[in-house]
Amino acid sequence: MDIEDLEWQSRTLGGISPRLVTMLVERGEVELLVRAASERGEWFCAQAAARELSRVGEVERALDVLEPFIGVGWDRARWVRAEVLLEAGRVEPALDAVRPDEGGLASERVCHDFAGLLTKAGRLEEAISVLTPHLDREWMLSALVELTEGQGRDEQVLELIAPRAQRARSARGEERWRVHPSNSQDLQAQVLERAGRVDEAVRILGADVAAGHFVVGNTLIAYAELLRRHGRLEELRVLGAGEHAGETLAYYARALEDDGQAGEAEAVLRRFIAAGEYPDRFRWPLIELLGRQGRIEEAVEVGRPTFDYHDACLFEGVIHLLHEAGRPDDALALLDQRSAEFVEEHASWFGSNRIWLLGEADRHEEALVYAETLPPDMYGLTVGKAWILEEMGRLEEALALLRADTDLRPSEVAELLIRHGRAAEAIAGMPSLAEQHAASRWREAAIQANSGPNDPPF
Fold it and tell me: Could you give phi then psi for residue 313, rounded to 5 degrees?
């Protein structure tokens, strides 16, 4: 087991990826995960195996799976060991295993993870103390709110948020546009709401929005969502019809629909589409509303004016709406109405979506014939053809096709095998972690060698 291979695996989701691991867990292949961890040094397998073994009470086996990774200095394994010990009721050993030193207390990530363990151990006051020095970072303030939910600490949390919210509130007046944590006003309203002080949350956040005392658009969205959750239609009407209509009108329309006023919601959206300076931002909420009512043809017509746009094009969304409504043939017909210029400009997207829709429409032979007309190096073509073959029950042909394409990730073959109950074969056929890491280094070197002097370094 090599620490560099583990770091590469974690950074790139290489080796037996989390997606493959999830598929194995869902199929009860825990022993296969254990073997992959011990024989191949696969970290994602070890992590999942330890958690699954811990869940069924096999604590010592879970710890044994992690030990080799801890032995080579893989820090993440120490944290999973702490989780296992904590779940087994061994609180002090769990916390002592990862308790941060002075350097660790300076790390946001370490403090975040340790606070989570402390919370699970019922030591919320300690968890808050560990987080407090880092609360000027958005994600750490969010973590404080999340960890304390339902713990009876809302007043304490509000005291910690208040000065930060005030700082954000005054930033625009002082012409400060980069203020941290920028989400403090949203979180203040969230904690007030969960504490049962909804009117206060609406009043404070509403005053900030009305006066323009906020610096990020998420504050507007947080206010609109708060109003919608509590059916505050009048406040939403004022917000949605004002200068922030582009960001918030959809929330007013959805609140009207929730209140049984779908007709009024539709009328409001159509008025803004007809009269607005930027009407296309209101089309998608109307398409969704019509879709929920089963008025699919009307939804398509609302989106149609945008289908040839370079920006704000709703074509893909409408295609998926038709698919979700069980109408893949109609989606195909719409796809085939695109101009030659559109098809040329979006060649890979068009080709892969046409194969997908033909498959969804059970027109498999037609899909294969169409696939043969496409450039053989088109992105996604091999995977699309393999999926069609799989849908037709021609599994071995699908596997042969995937294996022949050396540009594909080995996980494509593994996923197909796992889906068909051949998990052991899937893992056995995967290149080793070292081989995949070496191949990745080779690809990176080739890209660097082929890049020009003015190309960006990625």
Answer: -80, 130
* CA–CA distances in Å: residue 108 to residues 65, 143, 251: 28, 11, 35
Q: What is the pLDDT along the chain (458 residues), one digit of tens a residue?
A: 788 889 999 999 989 999 999 999 999 999 999 999 999 999 999 999 999 999 999 999 999 999 999 999 999 999 999 999 999 999 999 999 999 999 999 999 999 999 999 999 999 999 999 999 999 999 999 999 999 999 999 999 999 999 999 999 988 755 555 778 999 999 999 999 999 999 999 999 999 999 999 888 899 999 999 999 999 999 999 999 888 999 999 999 999 999 999 999 999 999 999 987 788 889 999 999 999 999 999 999 999 999 987 766 899 999 999 999 999 999 999 999 999 999 999 999 999 999 999 999 999 999 999 999 999 999 999 999 999 999 999 999 999 999 999 888 899 999 999 999 999 999 999 998 888 888 888 877 877 777 655 554 43
pTM listed for this prediction: 0.88
CA 76/CA 82 separation, integer angstroms = 10
Q: What's 282's DSSP letter?
A: G
How far is Cα 300 from Cα 318, in angstroms, rounded to an integer? Answer: 6
**Do residues 168 and 178 make contact, with C-beta atoms less than 8 angstroms apart?**
no
Alpha helices (H) in 178-244, listed in sequence order: 184-194, 198-211, 217-229, 233-241
Q: Count the alpha carbons within 13 Å of 349 in the hemisphere toward its beta carbon.
A: 10
Token pair for residue 33? Answer: 């995960």
The answer to whether the peptide bond before residue 181 is cis (omega within 30 degrees of 0) is yes
Angstrom CA distances, 176 to 160, 167, 269, 350, 392, stand at 22, 10, 35, 45, 60
Decide: 97 and 81 in contact? Cβ < 8 Å: yes
Radius of gyration of the chain (CA): 27
- At 37, give phi and psi (nearest 5°): -65, -45
* Among candidate residues 85, 75, 17, 19, the one with its CA nearest the CA of residue 51: 85
Which letter, b or e, does each residue of 157-191 get, where b requires 16 or more Cβ atoms within 10 Å of its Cβ? bbebbeebbebbbebbeeeeeebebbbbbbbbbbb
Rounded to whole angstroms, the Cα distance separating 188 from 222 reads: 11
124-131 helix and 108-120 helix, angle to the nearest 10 degrees:
170
Contact in structure between 141 and 183 (CB atoms under 8 Å): yes
